[in-house]
Amino acid sequence: MTIAERPWLNRLQPYQPGNRAPIADGSMASNESPLGASPDVAAAICGALAQSHRYPDPLAQELRSELASLHHVAADQILIGNGSDELIFLLASAYLAQGGHAVCAAPPYQIDRISTYAVNARLTQVPLRDWAHDLETMAAVDADIAYVVNPHNPTGTVCTPAGIREFVARSPARLVVIDEAYIDFTDDPNAQTAIPLVAGGGVAVLRTFSKIHGLAGLRVGYLVAERDIIATLQKIRPPFSVSSVAQAAALAALRDPAHPLAVREHTLRIRAEMVDLLEQAGYPVVPSQANFLLVQTLAETEFVSAVLRHGISVRPGSSLGLPGTVRISVPTERGLELLRGALRPDRELLQPTAAAASGLV
Questions:
Q1: Superkingdom, according to UniProt (predicted)?
Q2: Does the bond joining 107 to the residue before it have cis omega, within 30 degrees of 0?
Q3: What pLDDT, on a 0 to 100 scale, did the predictor assign at position 141?
Q4: I need a surface site. Which of 93, 139, 170, 233 has the fewest CB within 10 A?
Q5: Helix (H, G, I), strand (E, B) or coil at 80
Q6: pLDDT of residue 357
Q7: CATH 3.90.1150.10 in the chain, residue ranges
């Protein structure tokens, strides 16, 4: 007899990663850091390899102590995970499994949807309004967890701090989880973050080392929440899910504050140049405060194929729940030149959207 999957897993489609570009500078599909990690990270990794025969610290105490100081919270209000994705799955297992209810934007961050269905829970997806979270409608949904990805992926739009505070106050959700993976690319990260709301209860904030710190390949994320939530998640978390190498790399990244500042400056500058370049070529761009842009086009598949011929990989919007768009990560300087070349008027690229063509954008 062949074993069968649990019936609720029929709702799941596997996560679709971004395609790799044939040219490294043309990799614009996965929101990776164009400047890589801090130079200090490689040395830290080499040092950690000497202890690779030892199990890692199960709670990454040194790392979470430094993060606690950074965010002005207690160390036992932080949990380190194998990327923020592991932490999302832990939240689903602890608070949604077997009949729980979550609410999120539509389209959602894919892992929010996948983790909810994986534990046989219900998911209410509230369509975006003007490319951003419709917090007013979401606040009317009685749920166990409300997910707010801020900035939103895949649009790059943000909810204002006042909007988040009002949502937390009005939402009947037992826990509001605010995913701040792209917070460092907003106009004012210190004002934008929801971490101060954790003290009031009912709020958890996700962060990652994958974006601003450039450690996507090492998988380090963390959750800031009330102590009882952290304690609950520790009960079901695999004890050694974050390797000693990853912990050492994250510490080194954290101790080099100049590098994320350089990544932020590069990202904001190149992002602005990309907006000008794309709009001059006739492609409307959704205003973004992340390290990517969502671009509208009538011919999504053709756009993806056309730029690939110039060594550029981008993410088709249909794979992210927004057909008729493409998502383009902020690249290196060389990557920007590749994009500029692909968008030259003499190249056979695509027609802009109908709105742009009619002068309505």
A1: Bacteria
A2: yes
A3: 97
A4: 170
A5: strand
A6: 42
A7: 19-34+258-357
Task: Take residue 182 and report the two structure tokens written for it.
Answer: 């792209």
Tokens 């892992």 belong to 111
Whether the predicted pLDDT of 126 surpasses 90: yes
227, 73 contact by CB (below 8 A): no
Domain 39-254 indexed as CATH 3.40.640.10: yes
Q: Which residues on adjacent β-strands are paired with residue 327?
A: 294, 315
Question: CB–CB of 307/342 below 8 Å?
Answer: yes
Say whether pLDDT at 346 is over 80. no
Q: How far is CA 216 from the centre of its chain?
A: 11
Q: What's the burial of 97, exposed, middle or buried (CB within 10 Å: 0-12/13-18/19+)?
A: middle
What is residue 358's predicted lDDT score, i.e. its pLDDT? Answer: 33
Element (H, E) at 204: strand 203-208
Phi, psi of 151 (to 5 degrees): -65, 150
Measured in whole angstroms, the distance separating CA 320 from the mean position of its chain's CA atoms is 12
Instruction: Quote the pLDDT of residue 347.
Output: 52
Token output for 178: 């605010």
Pair of tokens at residue 107? 């389209």
Write out the residue limits of the CATH 3.40.640.10 domain(s) in the chain: 39-254
Question: For residues 12 and 119, what is the distance between their CA atoms, to the nearest angstrom?
Answer: 11
**Contact, 224 vs 200, CB < 8 A?**
no
Q: What is the pLDDT of residues 295-327, one digit of tens each?
A: 999 899 999 999 999 999 999 999 999 999 999
